[in-house]
Amino acid sequence: MGLTAYKKNDRIHAKGTPVKTVEVVLSGSVTLIDGSMKFTLGQGNILGAVETPGGEYNFDYIAGEDCKIGAYPYRELEDIEKVIRVNPRIAPVLATATVRTANESYKSFEESLDNAKNEYLKLKKQIDEYPAISASLGVSAQDFSELKGIEAPKESEYLTHWMVVFLKSMREHDDFLNKYVYTQGADMILGFVMGAARFMKYVIQENHRLRDYVRGLHEASMNFQSVYMKLEQKMRELRAVDDISADSNETPDLSNALNVILSFGEIPATESMEFKNLIETYGSYGNRGDMSDVMRKMRREITDAFFRIYSKVFLNSLETDSVPPEVKMFLMFGFVDPEIAGQENTDILYQIVKNHRKDPGNVVFTVPEWLEMIYSGEVMPSKNEFDLDYPAYLREQKQNGEITEEQEKELLTDAVNKVKFETENMFKIGDRMTFGRITSFIPIFDSCNVMKPLDSAYLATGLVHEKLDAIRSLDYSIFYRDQYYTNEELGIARLTINKEILPYMIMMPNMGSRVALWQEIEGKRRDTRARFLLPMFTVDDPIKSLISACGEFRWEMCKTEQGIHWNDLSDPSLTAEYADYIQFYRKNRLLNAEQKEKLKKTLQKVGNNLRRAFVSDYLLYMTAECNGSPVMNKASRAILFTYVPFGSEIRAKIGTNPQYAEFMKKHESNCANKLRPIEMMIRKLETRGEEIPTELLDQKRYLSM
What we know:
This protein is α+β, with helices and mostly antiparallel strands and 705 residues long. The chain has helices at 79-85, 91-136, 161-172, 174-181, 186-220, 222-238, 257-264, 269-284, 293-317, 325-333, 338-341, 343-355, 367-376, 390-399, 405-412, 415-435, 454-457, 461-474, 542-562, 574-583, 593-605, 610-623, 634-643, 648-654, 658-687, 694-703; strands spanning 2-6, 11-13, 21-27, 30-34, 37-41, 46-47, 60-63, 67-73, 364-366, 480-487, 492-500, 504-512, 516-519, 531-538.
């Protein structure tokens, strides 16, 4: 016998691999998982008794807790007999455990049968109601011939009544069997073990039959369900019944959420069943945040399926004003199941989605709101992970021969393809980025990822504005861009002005820890809005994370504006001066030995990445220096204050500190020089009785900030 110890959640056998051994659980427990089918085998159970020697495992065998397993070769069914005969002292334990597990396994069959019956009855009810609903809406009822042959699920012909009551009786008389029956030798024990194992095989066989029955039911009714759901939605609209009632604070029954979501998205039966099985299997794990290979694989499969389904559900949501609450919660939070989300969290999510309104300031967007903008053509899709925008991506596809020139032209204006591009790129990657814990990421809302109460973690629209305004009060010029203003009627030929272009703040449906800059401009146009990604629920105070993202924006925007000269000191800029500072810091006379050593460690920490080094300084500048606490060295402070000046209130507060006096004097002199011609222009227009253009007044205000 080979003895092996496993840690909790280790995979002992993978489904589909060859069956070569039969094992005894000496301690701990092992869980057998196949989709929604799940069995737990504790101490004394024989692993492999329900498998066929030489065949393939029907289950993933996962250590339910730390366990020890004794393994024996398994070439033929009779090898189980050898296991019992070579372990006479524990043979009664093997019999007791196998009978107990077989008895408990019957519950899984009962659940499968109940589920199949419920699916049948639900469909039958819809079929019966269909003619009346069609008539009430003035629509001709279609003939769905594929539904005429459906029948209720059949009872098992293998799991007979006498077997069930016999096993139950054996379970109830454990003590008697151990004292008077199992003591009669291995032959007696073998009969009980093999009988119980055969019963379990029947259970597994019947569960598979019922699973196939439900899958077949879904496939046969797919076209009907699509028609029926649309009629049902029209009925809701006519009756002006919104599933999310503004008059009720009670959460409706959302236990059927996943079925509602999949039906609403008209997900094909096979894809729908696969996703449901994945979610059911995932939900059955006690420790869903585990980092085992099994859980990693499952999270990966759920992630791939989730984003495919998301696009379809979202596109269907655009076709009706009566979107079920389950669907709204799915689109806004990734919600799929109240048990996985936790009932308390589900209640909060429902209240948030019920009370949510679009941001009147046009800055903060949920993912469905953002995708709707993509669909309507108000904004172009974001860049993909290879920094290609949508037109460039299509151009590359054409060059690679994947699409024709005609297809490229069609896809450029194809709203559905734009949504899919955005979902598969910005949304899929951004959701993972903002989550923060990349290796344990999963896009569905799961209570195991809720690290603080939702009501205190929720980044409501007003709160996002508040945090953004706090940063703008410090770094007042961050979102201002240089533009040219011309007004020939007033004699203004070409004037450089600064215009504030606020970013889009797109809320990813997760509880995360990171705010990310996705892109600083759209395409090549420098007067377009940046795109920031934020978690819908934040683990920490988001201000530092948002400041870091704004630091990234400062860096990337400067590089974009400077182009190939971004690090050319002959054309001074934030990036050029900072790159020079980092490159030659060892020779910098403004730095002492201690400061040079500190900077060396910082560069090691950020992998000598210029942008990350700058963001590190920007964070210090915005959190400490703004309060008059000089923690930066003089060289980096000089660069930051030159290109990232504090607002007037902060300057007034720290103005008495000699560390800032030189920089402040230079900044105010520079602003005064720029302000003088603007004021002269305004006075000249006032003298002529002309109306002062808003652009001039805004520029005067900007230079006075």
